[in-house]
Amino acid sequence: MNIKRFRRLLEAFGADFARWPGNERAAAEQLATTSLEAARGRRQAAELDRALEEGRGHVSQDSVARVLRNVAAPLPSQRQSGWLNGYSLGPAWRPAVLFGAVAILGFIVGLAESNVDWDTNFVDHVFDSHLLGRTAL
After folding, report:
1. Separation between Cα atoms, residue 39 and residue 44, nearest integer Å
2. Which of 70, 81, 112, 118: CA 20 to 30 A from 33?
């Protein structure tokens, strides 16, 4: 067991190894006896456990911040990746992007299929050919 795993289990189950999952206890006890960092973390967790059990309001700000940070963190399955995650567009962004992509594609295809002589006045061509029904210049 590494110290990172030990700290996560310590924050989840507290300092009493009896509350820990059975397959993690032996490794946790060994790490708590061999690592100063693990022993210090267990003492802090024991202090938090005692404060919670006694019902007194004395809990260090670091302990509260650590618990809140872990509670507020999204689970890995809730994290989304993508380039639009920073924007709060709701469910409407995907249809809007799809519509924009189709519109741009249509514009490109329209330009590629047109037989406009770019040396002439484009507005006159559009007016003559599409609005008046005349043939191209």
Report:
1. 9
2. 70
Q: Are 42 and 30 in contact (CB under 8 A)?
A: no
* pLDDT tens per residue, range 66-118: 777 777 666 655 555 555 555 555 677 778 888 889 998 888 777 766 665 55
Packing angle of the helix pair 61-72, 36-54 (nearest 10 deg): 90
Per-residue pLDDT reduced to its tens digit, 28-77: 999 999 999 999 999 999 988 888 887 765 667 787 787 777 776 666 55
CA distance 43 to 16: 10
Amino acid identity of residue 126, one-letter, is V
